[in-house]
Amino acid sequence: MVELANGTASPRQGTFFGEPKALAYLSFTEAWERFSYYGMTALLVLYMTQALFMPGHIENIAGFASFRAGLESVFGPMSTLALASQIYGLYTGFVYFTPVFGGIIADRWLGRRNAVMLGAILMSGGHIAMALDQSFLLALFLLIAGCGLLKGNISTQVGQLYAEDDGPGRTRGYSIFSMGINVGATLGPLICGLLAQIYGWHAGFGLAGVLMLTGLATYIAGYRTLAEETPKANRTKADVAPLDAQQWRVIGALVVAMALTVPQSVAYYQNSSIGLVWIDAHVNLDFFGFHIPTSWFNSIDPFISIVFVPVLIALWRWQDRHGGEPNEVMKISIGAWIAAAANFALVIGCLLAERVPAIFPVLYDVLLGVAFLYYWPPLLALISRAAPSGWKATLIGAAFLSLFAGNILVGWIGTYYERMTPTNFWTLEGGIAVIGGVLAFLLARPLNRILTGTAS
Fold this sequence. Notes:
Layout: E1 2-3, E2 8-9, E3 15-16, E4 19-20, H1 22-52, H2 64-75, H3 80-97, H4 99-110, H5 112-129, H6 136-159, H7 167-199, H8 201-221, H9 231-236, H10 245-260, H11 262-269, H12 274-282, E5 286-287, E6 290-291, H13 300-307, H14 309-321, H15 328-352, H16 359-386, H17 392-414, H18 422-452
Antiparallel strand pairs: 1-2, 3-4, 5-6
């Protein structure tokens, strides 16, 4: 465990897969939180378009008329589907925007442990509020605020379990932590989606709330295993040394690298919005008498993100031994091309059949799962490696702003779905990923020169 005051690791009291015992509590807390988050998110757009925004329900949402008027004053009049897409984009976007402020609140006032606990409480309340039409907007607000307090701070706590110079240990810790994320993201849509199909929407949302409370209980159980500096110490700590010109260039290069992931985020996160709407309307979901819940498709890409980790690590090691492992920015480029291929697979499915075989969206999500491994973990690794001392946590927090921008664009682009054919829409999504791939490919070498401090 890390004592932040001096940056050294204290003796370990028990281990979890050879890592600090506190990692177990953090990983399982995050697994339950992601279970609830992705279970709810997989239902959200379908719930809005098929139930909540229908006559007899939409009138009951507290404050919704004013909220919709505000949105349409900015984006113009919207159909039910366009409105759902826009709200989905704003919700998921701000989920990745608020961690920046959650980190500030934790550092300056609450401390990370209390911030994570408060975030879990707010998120539990948000899931419970989804059970009523009237509290829909309140539910989204509580989920956004709670995730802002929890997400960035619990991720930072993983790094704090290791000494500053223990890079390999930190990598192992984040790999185990990411496994928890992807296990939760895989099971959430499966179980919440099945409950929603059998017992109704609110059964799925209710399970998400119960699981979030389970995550809170897990974190409370491990509360004493986590150490941190007090917020007072953070406020009184001496300022870090000013950055020199080279360090500012490195920060600028990292910001560019973050921006390069935005097109891939647009191509990736549409699978939880319009992707589900398209599957529900255009894909043959009957399998030997069983109707596949649409939300189940959202479990494929996180599952692939689990099983392909050892495959890609082996591939990258082989490439490294043969002098050809791509650098992090080049991996981002490759990920964008894979995301483009995923969307073009849907284009092919649309062209081949009016009722598209389920294999096409399955292939789509499989490719997206691999694409994710090529762009998000390498981006975090790049920041952790290259960021100037004293700026690593800040810049990792800033990386979530790329997901904020990507999800905002997902919602906005989704409003055009009804004005286009599905073939054209998925071609547009694939083209956006191609643009990201080309830009990352062209900038990989100059960015790498800045980030490694080499002249060649």
